Amino acid sequence: MQETLIASACPECDAEISLGQDIRVSEIVECPECRLELEIASVEPPQLILAPEVEEDWGE
């Protein structure tokens, strides 16, 4: 039995990104074309947004 893939487009370069069946909101994926890290914002329908930059924590 073949796994069904969900597809979405990269918001930066518009490349098609194949996602697995068991994706979750807030999961991070990488665009195979432009290599940007993207966050899954919605599962139904699948929507990708630019992942937030990780900022350094200075103990504040």
From TrEMBL:
It comes from Streptomyces termitum. This is Lysine biosynthesis protein LysW. It comes from the Bacteria. The lineage of its organism: Bacteria, Bacillati, Actinomycetota, Actinomycetes, Kitasatosporales. It holds the Pfam family Zn_ribbon_LysW. InterPro entries: LysW (IPR005906).
